[in-house]
């Protein structure tokens, strides 16, 4: 399927009303196996016993993939167990809420949807479910469907070693290993009728490093959010395609660390103005605005493909013949949100003729409620306070500053916003020089993640900081549950203790 045809991607619990479509999908995926699909009563049983373990990915409302799981008391099964044994003859009576291991009994992506990294979403969901339920890890028997081609030359052990060394490609095993599963044992006769694997399977496991034996956590709300900041190097590009190739490189990098957000800087696409140096400066940036729609579309495709929410920094955009500084939130579910710079700088107004926007709002994401303010807007405390009153957990600030003076204004104001609004603030800027772009000659930045200042947070209010004036990425985890605790029981409570009988802030 062409990624440009995708309107929505949803990860949802499996519903029994999905059965007929699920059945057809399984017949399509396992066309080489007899009895390749679950009967309806099997699916009903799974949903009844463990709803959270049965999920589907829907693209444009249609099932693109599925993952089915149970929880088992792993020590009651030998390492040589079969598929029939682990499911207790397909009754799933082996499932127990008191078990210690999430066991995968089914996972697939339909052929037409492969290449979109949807399988990784299913595995990421399983990993998060495993962590939230405080289970030891995940296990399942993995097929090795290409083994029959090498069975006369290689033992199963030798075959697996060659797959790990990339000397042989096995579509199933390669995928499992790339998702951090490690082979622990070779099982003979695991799945009856699996001739492609010569009746062998590989017992694959993933260990939950956060497992604590006496503690039980059962929540689906994502509390720990991983943020990826891109400290972007300004450099010449021959084309928009070349620039977006560099952008994809960074998206791929932060996604590889399972980041939930990628934040790009303000006007990161400014190098493209070099081709318009023959024009007056105000006209050159209007030519740059012609790329915005295509850039947003590409970022949306990347957010879907790499399963990450992308904050596009900002770009010039013309609406009703007026020039604005805007950015977009491209969510990994395929939806797109727009935000505007409210306060343009004196230079933006004087040199480019840029207008200030009027749109101020928070955005609901799969990782809490966020706000986005572009550069200069972070220096006006009223804006972030309004967003905080709307329930903002994380404030993102893409910025562009030429001197250390300008950077210091953004940095210190952003840190103040974190303290006074009891939220996390992430800022990302550009570094380097653009000698061939007028009015964009030099850049100075140090990307950072700020926290409130209280006992649960770093004493200096800095969660992470990049090296100044160096192209790099910065990865940081922020715990949203700490904000809730701070709001109620902090040493000081900046939001709760406001004297609303004396003053108030209103949105017009």
Task: Spell out the key features of this protein.
seven-stranded mixed β-sheet; 508 residues
Explain this structure to me?
The chain has 508 residues and is an alpha/beta fold. It has helices at 19-29, 40-49, 83-86, 118-132, 156-164, 171-178, 240-256, 281-288, 292-305, 346-352, 381-389, 404-421, 480-489; strands at residues 9-13, 55-59, 62-72, 101-109, 137-143, 182-188, 200-207, 224-233, 261-263, 309-311, 315-319, 322-330, 336-340, 354-355, 363-365, 368-372, 394-398, 424-428, 430-433, 442-443, 448-450, 462-465, 472-479. The strands form 3 sheets. Strands 8, 9, 10, 11, 12, 13, 14, 19, 20 and 23 form a 10-stranded mixed sheet that branches. A 7-stranded mixed sheet has the order 1-2-3-4-5-7-6. Strands 15-16-17-18-21-22 form a 6-stranded mixed sheet, covered by helices on one side. The longest helix has 18 residues, at 404-421. The protein is globular.
């Amino acid at each position: 399927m062409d990624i440009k045809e995708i309107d929505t991607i949803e990860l949802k619990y499996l519903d029994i009303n999905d059965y007929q479509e699920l059945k057809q999908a399984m017949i399509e995926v396992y066309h080489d196996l007899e009895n390749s699909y679950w009967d309806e009563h099997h699916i009903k049983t799974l949903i009844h016993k463990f709803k959270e373990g049965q999920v589907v990915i829907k693209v444009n409302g249609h099932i693109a993939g599925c993952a089915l799981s149970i929880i088992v008391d792993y020590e009651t099964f030998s390492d040589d167990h079969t598929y029939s044994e682990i499911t207790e003859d397909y009754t799933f009576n082996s499932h127990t809420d008191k078990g210690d291991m999430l066991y995968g009994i089914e996972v697939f992506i339909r052929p037409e949807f492969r290449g979109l990294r949807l399988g990784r979403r299913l595995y990421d969901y399983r990993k998060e479910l495993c962590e939230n339920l405080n289970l030891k890890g995940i296990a399942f028997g993995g097929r090795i469907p290409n083994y029959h081609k090498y069975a006369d030359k290689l033992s199963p052990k030798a075959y697996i070693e060659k797959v790990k060394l990339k000397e042989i490609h096995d579509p199933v095993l390669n995928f499992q290993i790339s998702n951090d599963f490690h082979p622990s044992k070779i099982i003979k006769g695991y799945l009856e009728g699996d001739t492609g694997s010569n009746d062998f399977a590989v017992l694959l496991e993933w260990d939950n490093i956060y497992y604590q034996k006496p503690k039980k956590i059962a929540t689906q709300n994502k509390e720990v959010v991983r943020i990826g900041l891109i400290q972007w190097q300004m450099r010449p590009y021959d084309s928009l395609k070349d620039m977006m190739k560099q952008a994809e490189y960074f998206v791929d990098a932060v996604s590889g660390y399972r980041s939930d957000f990628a934040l790009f800087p303000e006007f990161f696409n400014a190098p493209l103005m070099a081709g318009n140096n023959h024009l007056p400066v105000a006209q050159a940036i209007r030519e740059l605005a012609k790329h915005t729609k295509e850039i947003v579309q590409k970022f949306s495709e990347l957010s879907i493909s790499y399963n990450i929410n992308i904050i596009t920094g900002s770009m010039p955009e013309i609406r009703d013949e007026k020039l604005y500084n805007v950015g977009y939130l491209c969510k990994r579910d395929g939806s797109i949100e727009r935000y505007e710079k409210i306060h343009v700088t004196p230079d933006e107004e004087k040199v480019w003729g840029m207008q200030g926007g009027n749109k101020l709002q928070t955005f609901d994401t799969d990782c809490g409620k966020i706000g986005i303010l572009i550069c200069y807007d972070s220096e006006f405390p009223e804006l972030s306070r309004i967003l905080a009153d709307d329930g903002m957990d994380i404030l993102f600030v893409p910025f562009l500053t030429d001197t250390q003076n300008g950077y210091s204004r953004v940095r210190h104001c952003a840190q103040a916003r974190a303290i006074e609004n009891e939220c996390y603030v992430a800022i990302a800027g550009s570094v380097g020089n653009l000698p061939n772009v007028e009015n964009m000659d030099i850049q100075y930045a140090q990307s950072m993640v700020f926290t409130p200042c209280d006992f649960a947070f770093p004493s200096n209010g800095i969660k992470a900081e990049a090296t100044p004036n160096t192209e790099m990425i910065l990865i940081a985890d922020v715990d949203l549950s700490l904000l809730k605790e701070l709001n109620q029981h902090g040493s000081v409570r900046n939001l709760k203790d406001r004297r609303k009988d004396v003053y108030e802030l209103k949105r017009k």
